[in-house]
Every structure is written in structure tokens, then in C-alpha cells.
Amino acid sequence: MNRKTVVSFLSIVLLLTLACNYLIATGSQTMTPVRLETTVDRISFSGEYSCQATVSALLVIDKDGVATLSLTGIVYVDYINCTPDPSGFQATYIITGLADPDSWLITFMSCNEGGFSAEGSISYRDNKPVGNVSCTHLTGADAGKIAIMVWVPAGNPSQ
Fold first, then answer.
1. Which long-range contacts (CB under 8 A, 24 or more apart) does 140-147 make?
2. How far is it, in rounded angstroms, from Cα 41 to Cα 18?
3. How far is Cα 95 from Cα 152, in angstroms, rounded to an integer?
4. Over the stretch 131-147, which tens digit does the pLDDT of each residue have?
């Protein structure tokens, strides 16, 4: 195939994909909001060490397809021995992305309002969220390193 044919074909595929979600993207059609409570396995990283905890999470998809996965859990003061903060202080991560109502798939892009980048996806078909997401440091000495990884539901690290 020549370059012009390939570019034309890819352009048509892109336009068809965009057209499928045009009504939601322009706000002329809305989604049915979704609110799901679940548990997740969260692995928190500090340098070469990591600690795992099972925490509660809330997945909300608004009428515009904006998805928010909120999870709050243990903060560790010692990652070598996975010692929780004795004060009981907990950290909250809010991971945001966009839901595709046709595929029932959420693609995540941001953690904590842009404080971290997010990568991963979660399917929410039949109101059963399944997938994984990671949040990566954007700045500082840890830039490019994973801060947390989340598996939904808890006990499902294969996703």
C-alpha cells in the first residue's frame, strides 16, 4: 500500500471512531450515571520497597462520561516493614478518566488532579468493575516512577 492509501484509511477509521462518541463528547447526549462501591488491592511504592493493602473504593461515572475512582487507605511510615502510620492517617487517591459507553471501558489519565499521571483501564460491564490502574510521579526525584498500582476488584492481580 502506498502512503496516501494508508493515511486515508487511518483517517476514515479515526473519523468513524470519533463519530461513534460524538453525541456524548458534544454534550448533546448524556450517559446514565454509574456509582459502584468495591474493594481494590493497592500497592504503594517508596523507592525499591512496596506495601500492599486492600481498601474500599468508589467508582463514579457522571452523565458526561467522566469517571472518578476514589480510594482511601493506609499510609506507611516504614516501607521496609510495611508499618502503618501510628496516628491512623490515611491517604486518598482520586483517579480520573473517561468512560466509553459502547465498550463499557474507562481509560484513566490523571491522579489527584494532575499531581500524578495515570495509566490503565477498568471495564464496568454488568456493574462489575475489573481492571488495573497505576499512578506515576510527574515531578521531582521520583518522576517517572510508580506511586501506586490498583487492581479492581481486590484479589484480582491478573488484570
1. 145/45, 146/45, 147/44, 147/45, 147/111, 147/116
2. 34
3. 13
4. 999 999 999 999 999 99
